[in-house]
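Anyone? Bumping this.
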Amino acid sequence: MPVFALVDCNNFYVSCERVFKPELEGKPVIVLSNNDGCAVARSNEAKALGIKMGVPFFKLRHIINTMDVHVFSSNYALYGDMSNRVMQILDMFTPAMEIYSIDEAFLDFSDFAFTGLKSYAHHIRKKIKKDTGIPVSIGMATSKTLAKLANKIAKSSLKTGGVLDLTSMKFQDRALEITPVEDVWGIGGRYAAYLKLKGIKTALDFKYAATRVIRKKMGINGIRLQRELCGESCYPLAEDINTRRKSVSASRSFKKPVTDLTALSQAISLYISRGAVKLREQNSCAETMTVYVMTSRFKPESFYYNSKTAVFPTASNNTPELIKQGKKILKQIFKRNKQYTKAGIVFSNLVQESHVQQDLFNTKDTARTQRLMETVDNINSQMGRGCVRSAALGSSNKQYWQTISNYRSSAYTTRWDQLLTVC
DNA sequence: TCTGGGGTCCTAGGACCC
DNA sequence: TCTGGGGTCCTAGGACCC
């Protein structure tokens, strides 16, 4: 029988900031999303003040000022690097693991013949805290969904000491009983509302609910979820999940609404060039590209969204070529007199660079443009993103459609000029 | 005034073909 | 008056995750 351990960093972004500012320990701290838009990470003290996940920053101003909440813009260079450190340590403790997100990983504990899973998990926990400064919680069970659930309880209940082993049937139903149905991995707000109407309020209710009811609304995944809660594994460990994505996207909300095509065109060109870098990093080419623009969804009376997808005769990851196509699409979906607040692109139907079907009628020198892209990527990775860029992005570094981050901490671990100084 | 970004999977429905 | 049916492919949209 498989055994999964889910290791999840506690309030990860906040914990990363605290590693370099230990004086913030015990104080309310939040980290904002891109554009300083919403609270996306909160310390326990901030949670205790009632600051909810995803609440817009402007609605928090009052509580932040009166309760002395410390605020950070998100600093992905720092979090990405801290994440790598944690994952490297985890890798030493398991034959196989799946890095599920920036702050969590599933470890394969299936073949561990000994029964001391709990003390092993405590050991891992201590090691990570000592070597990186990041606190983690660990949940163990025979399915990923149950491991998730165990982790959640380990995190919130002090007496677990940050570790909960749910591999034995004995405690499973008790754990499900105290878990609201919306806290089950895979059940969001919409499903939870439906389930509650049907009298399904806890994870335990869900486990024993009529399959027909689940199936009707949630499809095949609902059935799998039900089995997972019974301890039967339906989602195997996926290794190397990050090495080759199935789609790559880039988008941003603007500082201020944008109305003219030129500015939108520059923004779209920037997202395409960022997306194309990601494609080249994983040696992929895209067969299709979707471009979309939208106005604020908080003004439903004037809301406008439009998108269009182009299919290329030859899959590509060539920035200038993609920008050319992107501009064409943008012209087709652009509508005048609209207050655009966000735009983006999605590359999908990705194929391996080496497997790209060449277009018979394509007479362009692909080897040459490929070398050019490599050179540009090399310069930018050494000199900083955007050092060499397409003219389509516009000349100014401070475009008004660019984004805000007023509370950014230093890139302590990835830039020499921002290393922490110890006096 | 100010409301994130990047992913995944599934399903319904339309177009097309035989 | 009667007006096929099934398979496949594609896309848009909906749901979820962190």
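Late reply, but here is one note on the structure posted above: The first strand of chain A starts at residue 4 and ends at 9.
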